[in-house]
Design brief:
The structure is a homodimer of 316-residue chains.
Chain A: E1 5-11, E2 15-22, E3 27-34, H1 41-57, E4 67-71, E5 74-76, E6 81-83, E7 93-94, H2 96-104, E8 108-112, H3 113-124, E9 133-138, E10 142-148, E11 151-153, H4 184-187, H5 189-200, H6 208-211, H7 221-229, H8 233-257, E12 261-265, H9 273-285, E13 296-299, H10 306-313
Parallel strand pairs in A: 1-4, 4-8, 9-12, 12-13
Antiparallel strand pairs in A: 1-2, 2-3, 5-6, 6-7, 9-10, 10-11
Chain lengths: 316, 316
């Protein structure tokens, strides 16, 4: 099949990163501009248009199939309307797909960060061989996207895959969202750091603090992972527990959808293999028997480019 | 549109119930035969064929679009292979769709009880107006089916919708399946009866036992519901707790799929409206905010005919 071209836009809080991408996921041209998030939506839209124009030049007249945009906040689909994007000033309800489509006379798809990253892994990354998988962004919070039959599943109003707010314990911790026991309230980065600081009070011999440069306010999951790999029991316990709880949520989704495969990306996903073992074992325990053998927990393959590649991937 | 005809077969442990059904869900002819489940699969298949032949005669030569079969056990789809059906002797792996299709030269679809009942509610019952909903069978256990965009969603291997084994508490009760905290282990009929018997020891003034004819081994959820409606606090507490936990699981599924609507059938679903209120409140608490307003918990409308109607519904 001849190579197709598409433009992928990763709209971040500080940078608009835009690429001209081909069907193999190769970046043929790249533009990085400041988002101007502290000004107003008009300024941000101006930056998006500018970055698209910049990479579009490099197509040198070859046909471009469309423009994909990964954006923060709640995205209403169909429609590609971006609602209340966090970190962008005064961004309330912006019909982004419409605005960009009118400007460039091209097909435009807009989706949230997690869905776009899921598409990236499906087309170019760890999910390439798997037509059905759950993608998880494990970072400050826990987000997700569902790849069903090789396509992103958005649900009737574009909100599917919000797996971070699945409760793993109805009597559990109170989450910011008002629900008890959301898995995000247990395994999100902030929670892990906070819990570590608490536990350190009763484990003065733990090496965790050394890995965080002696400053407990700087503790991140990667410090836990390194400490654990250096033999620190507390660090290991905290991360294995986190993996186990993530596995409970994964089990819920696998049971619902009859899926086997989960791909995990996001800042925390770089933790050591022992965490993935814990996730896998827990997910296997938490699915109906016929699914157990097939359970796979994979690391995402695409790092910082996932947003841009996945945005283009919605078109390609 | 002209009326279509299809045959629906409800294969139960004691009775094969087969109907000639039109697109409105009207039963034009009905056959009930003993399943002969204590003999062998051949005998059971003979009964299925016989019942189909009986109702087929009433089509009087009008074209029949196909045959749908609702069967117990694990169904492998695509393929319509029925594995290890409980309650049928020596039933191991039977390619039922193939066998029946060869006999009658008609399209045949086979699915499990829960999925077939979900289709019945989607086509003819409480889900008629809702293109996307979760169907729950609340009985001895907790089963489910997913209607997505007006069709049954079976998943890659036919196992989707097994929502009874979603854990609502990772530290919770041990379920028969080996998982901790499956919602089935809390709200299945057997558990509810057992829990009631335990609690009655410390609540000698409860009226529950009266409603069960004075025999605690006969206590069923409907006795709890009647006692609760007669003002019995213990009965009310047990059912409200069950509804609350069912709502936690419903929240997990709604978050995953971006659904709003749940339809509940099965033996326990006849409990009073106060239980539905508890389910609804809990489901609303357990979904992400944008979904909360739309949450609907509906009673299934089709009773004992759901299996037969839904089986035909897979064809119509």
């Amino acid at each position: 099949m001849a190579q197709q071209l598409a433009i992928g836009v990763d709209l971040g809080g500080t940078t608009v990163k835009t690429g001209l991408i081909n069907s193999d996921g190769k970046v043929l041209a790249l533009s990085k501009l400041p988002t101007r998030a502290d000004e107003n939506p008009e300024a941000v839209i101006e930056q998006i248009k500018k970055s698209i124009s910049e990479v579009l030049m490099h197509a040198k007249g070859a046909p471009v199939a469309g423009i994909g945009i990964g954006a923060p906040g709640l995205i209403e689909n169909p429609g590609g309307i971006v609602r209340s994007a966090p970190n962008i000033k005064n961004w309330d309800v912006v019909p982004l797909a419409d605005i960009i489509s009118k400007e460039f006379k091209l097909r435009v798809e807009v989706d949230n960060d997690a869905n776009v990253a899921a598409v990236a892994e499906a087309k170019f990354g760890a999910g390439k061989e798997h037509p059905n998988f759950l993608f998880i962004i494990w970072g400050t919070g826990v987000g997700g996207g569902i790849i069903m039959d090789n396509h992103i599943y958005r649900g009737p109003s574009g909100g599917a895959g919000e797996v971070g707010h699945i409760s793993v314990n109805y009597e559990g911790l109170m989450c910011n969202c008002g629900t008890r026991g959301c898995v995000e309230a247990y395994v999100g980065q902030k929670y892990l750091s906070k819990r570590t600081i608490e536990k350190l009070k009763t484990a003065p011999n733990s090496k965790i603090l050394q890995f965080a440069g002696g400053d407990e306010s700087k503790i991140e999951p990667m410090h836990l992972s390194k400490a654990a790999e250096a033999g620190d029991q507390l660090a290991k316990d905290i991360l294995v527990e986190a993996g186990t709880l993530l596995g409970v949520m994964i089990g819920a989704v696998m049971n619902t959808l009859d899926f086997r495969v989960t791909v995990i990306g996001g800042g925390v996903s770089a933790v050591g293999d022992f965490v993935y073992d814990a996730i896998r074992q827990s997910a296997m325990r938490n699915v109906q028997k016929p699914l157990r053998d097939g359970i796979k927990i994979l690391r995402a393959k695409l790092g910082n480019d996932a947003g841009m590649l996945g945005a283009a991937g919605m078109i390609l």
